[in-house]
């Protein structure tokens, strides 16, 4: 199991432009057969800070997502409005509270 | 609904010391009546980078968590082993793909 956090930082004046692109990306990604979770949130203190919380069965599924038509078409359009580089965290280990 | 990402950055030599503290914190928090989700992950590239992905009904529930006995006892013990300040994102809005 692979959990992913991907953060985008969008220029304030571009937020209304990227929102429909994000909506299309989320809708298309949720239809990918290997997608377990792909939810997009906004920082309550910074409306241009978009945060994806994703879950994939494995790295191959994430790679397939990044190679999809919708990803390759929409992400460059979104990135044109970035104010700084995106930030990614890949997590494949969950701390289990039941192991003493 | 409130989603939270909380990131801790622990010194490499302290990871084995903090792991049981994190396990106790996760186990106790999951028993809080208002806790919807409280899962702790580790960055696959940085074993001292711990990431909580949390969900609470509202800000009052998060405040109650931060005032709990287990939080006030365990978090300062964990923070003694931090190599830099924690990072928090609070998100109260999800981008809905169904709104065209």
From TrEMBL, chains A, B:
<protein>
    <submittedName>
        <fullName>Antibiotic biosynthesis monooxygenase</fullName>
    </submittedName>
</protein>
<keyword id="KW-0503">Monooxygenase</keyword>
<dbReference type="GO" id="GO:0004497">
    <property type="term" value="F:monooxygenase activity"/>
</dbReference>
<feature type="domain" description="ABM">
    <location>
        <begin position="2"/>
        <end position="90"/>
    </location>
</feature>
<dbReference type="Pfam" id="PF03992">
    <property type="entry name" value="ABM"/>
</dbReference>
<dbReference type="GO" id="GO:0005829">
    <property type="term" value="C:cytosol"/>
</dbReference>
<dbReference type="InterPro" id="IPR050744">
    <property type="entry name" value="AI-2_Isomerase_LsrG"/>
</dbReference>
<dbReference type="InterPro" id="IPR007138">
    <property type="entry name" value="ABM_dom"/>
</dbReference>
<dbReference type="InterPro" id="IPR011008">
    <property type="entry name" value="Dimeric_a/b-barrel"/>
</dbReference>
<keyword id="KW-0560">Oxidoreductase</keyword>
């Amino acid at each position: 199991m692979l959990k992913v956090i991907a953060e985008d930082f969008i220029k304030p004046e571009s937020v209304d432009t990227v929102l429909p692109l994000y909506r299309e990306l989320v809708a298309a990604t949720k239809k990918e057969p290997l997608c377990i979770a792909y939810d997009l949130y906004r920082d309550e203190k910074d409306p241009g800070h978009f945060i994806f919380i994703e879950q994939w069965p494995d790295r191959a599924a994430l790679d397939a997502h990044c190679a999809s038509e919708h990803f390759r078409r929409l992400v460059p359009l979104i990135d044109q409005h970035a104010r700084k580089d995106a930030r990614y965290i890949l997590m494949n280990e969950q701390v289990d509270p039941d192991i003493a």
